[in-house]
Amino acid sequence: MITAVDVIRAKRDGLELTRAQIDWVIDAYTRGEVADEQMSALAMAIFLNGAAPAEIADWTAAMIRSGITLDLTPVGRRCVDKHSTGGVGDKITLPLAPLVASFDVAVPQLSGRGLGHTGGTLDKLESIPGFEADLGETRVIEQLRQVGAVVCAATGDLAPADRKLYALRDVTATVESIPLIASSIMSKKIAEGADAIVLDVKVGSGAFMTELDQARELAGTMVRLGRDHGVDTRALLTDMSLPLGRTAGNALEVREAIEVLEGGGPSDVVELTVALAHEMLAAAGEPDADPAEALRDGRAMDKWRKLVAAQGGSPDAPLPIARETETLAAEADGFVTGMDAYAVGVAAWRLGAGRTRQGQPVQAGAGVEILKTVGQQVRAGEPVFRLHTDTPERFTSAREALDGRWGTGAEPPERGPIVLDRIA
Ligand code: URA
Q1: Engineering a disulfide at 348: which of 209, 314, 321, 367 sits with its beta carbon 3.0 to 4.6 angstroms away?
Q2: Measuring CA to CA, how many Å separate 179 from each of 18, 165, 197, 306?
């Protein structure tokens, strides 16, 4: 007979868990037989002692089996999904999903709401008047057949063990563990039923993984898990030491995504959108497709309008704007030399763009607009950031988050590439 205490003790003592132990503990935890305090102890033992590749594979498989797996065969096209490990200003899903769908490839994007300093894709989309994120499975498949792309909330039936465990990890300081992150992300993604998955693994101050080596290990682990389950999985490691684009905050980011779909927008957002689209299209058997052209000629924008309308949104309705704004100015002439992504994320969050507890409402118009980014010239007194909020008492704490976390100097810095590595 397997017991929770035996499994915890084995992992505590550095032993490798057997498949039978893992299957039992995930199943018993999902059913409520293993208590939260026991799972917390096990998560901490995994956090401290790590897990072998076979354990990570068995853990992921057990979490997939804890719920349903979507059957996307009725869509009738190759289905390719993208997952980002989360970063500041990461609005890439918004232009990317319609862009890839404009090539007759289906893109099921089951996304989340934000917690902490990184924003959630659904919070961004829900700033569009009328937009609905909670669709049932039948509507998801119908929209994939009709439009080719859907961005909606994951249902509770997909990997329910992960839903429970992730909430527990969040309050027990056991999130930042490669085996636990990899199995958490991949169990949900594999259960979504896509044929291929492209991972955007972020590296830098605004990401879970601050070092390239850790990010490489996480990406390699996830790529192996996907492939072991017959899903073509590839990963790009991308820079998250600076915020992505010029905005962090829900409606502000939607506006920027629309600029990209109109053929403009910040160069880093365009570069990453096109790089990820290339990977997704190659995984779907379209290696020669030209996503940059589909942004320029309006095909991606047509798809975006169809996607928004299919989910009840008004593509032409004005986006919400915050009631109050304030700017933060440079103190001396020079160039913007640095800007910490994490600090910008925290400032946007404090202005009301994010939540501190699950289920809290967010302000659609709140966030940070970067008026002068790294490498640009500024004059003393010229605004570098514009802060947006409906609740002006939040300005002080947002300013504090940015204080000392950006700078100017006499020389413009070198900016490296956004894509740091590729694992396939
Ligand atoms: N996102 C997830 O879904 N799970 C993790 O563990 C970390 C990020």
Answers
A1: 367
A2: 15, 13, 18, 38
Domain count along the chain: 3
Here the tokens at position 201 are 């693994």
pLDDT one-digit tens code per residue, 260-298: 999 999 999 999 999 999 999 999 999 999 999 999 999
The verdict on the CB of residue 166 being under 6 Å from ligand 1 is: yes
Q: Which helix (H) or strand (E) holds 47?
A: helix 36-49
Residues in a beta bridge with 196: 80, 232
In this predicted structure, the answer to whether residue 116 has a pLDDT above a threshold of 70 is: no
Q: Does a structural domain hold residue 78?
A: yes
Q: Are residues 290 and 392 in the same domain?
A: no
This prediction's pTM: 0.95
Average pLDDT score, the chain: 95
Task: Identify whether 385 is part of a domain.
Answer: yes
pLDDT in tens, 89-104: 999 999 999 999 999 8
Side chain identity at residue 19, one-letter code: R
Kindly give, in sequence order, each residue whose CB lies less than 8 Å from that of residue 393, ignoring residues fewer than 6 positions away: none
Same domain assignment for residues 290 and 197:
yes
Q: Does 301 share its domain with 361?
A: no
Predicted confidence band of residue 170 (pLDDT cuts 50, 70, 90): confident
Do 117 and 264 lie in one domain? The reply is yes
Residue among 58, 81, 162, 195 flagged as catalytic: 162
Active-site position among 11, 82, 117, 169 = 169
Domain hosting residue 354, numbered range? 324-409
Ligand 1 atom closest to the CA of 181, numbered from 1 = 6
CATH of the domain at 229: 3.40.1030.10
Give every CB contact of residue 403 below 8 A, 6+ residues apart in sequence: none
